[in-house]
Recover the amino acids of this structure.
């Protein structure tokens, strides 16, 4: 029943959007309030949508700390993309304090759940300190890694 009400809500929301490519600011809207309430009550899809919105700055002002909060809620429910993104956020110190132990934990869970990106990031973290080529290549352009992860949920 939870998923059905979320899908109906999202369907009605997206039908009501104007047919333009303009970014809408939902910061003070009832939509954001409803999505936040749903996320805080355990709706996985709402958690992921809000995390993506805050991470990318789409629909709301970019806020990595809030994004990390919603990714963590989803990651705790076993969402592998959320686990991978949260792990990379801990590794980079983006929205959270940098913590390699937590990064390895979340990336390990994501890798165990089949996320190829998590396996690549874990391998790069294990690279010898005198040879950071793999890590440098994996993190040189951080956005495409996260963007490809974000696209996977759509």
């Amino acid at each position: 029943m939870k998923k059905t009400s979320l899908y109906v809500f999202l369907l009605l929301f997206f039908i009501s959007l104007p047919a333009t490519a303009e970014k809408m600011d939902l910061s003070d809207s009832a939509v954001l309030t409803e999505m936040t309430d749903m996320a805080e009550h355990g709706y996985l899809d709402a958690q992921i949508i809000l995390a993506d919105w805050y991470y990318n700055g789409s629909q709301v002002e970019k806020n990595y700390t809030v994004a990390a909060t919603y990714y963590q809620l989803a990651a705790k429910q076993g969402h592998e993309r959320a686990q991978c993104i949260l792990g990379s956020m801990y590794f980079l110190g983006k929205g959270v304090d940098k913590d390699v132990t937590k990064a390895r934990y979340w990336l390990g869970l994501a890798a165990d759940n089949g996320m190829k990106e998590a396996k690549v990031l874990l391998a790069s973290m294990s690279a010898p300190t005198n040879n950071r080529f793999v890590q440098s290549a994996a993190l040189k352009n951080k956005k495409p890694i996260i963007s490809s992860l974000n696209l996977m949920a759509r």
Remarks:
- Residues 11-21, 130-135, 150-154 have pLDDT under 50 and may be disordered.
- The domain at 28-152 is CATH 1.25.40.10 (Serine Threonine Protein Phosphatase 5, Tetratricopeptide repeat).
- The first helix runs from residue 2 to 16.
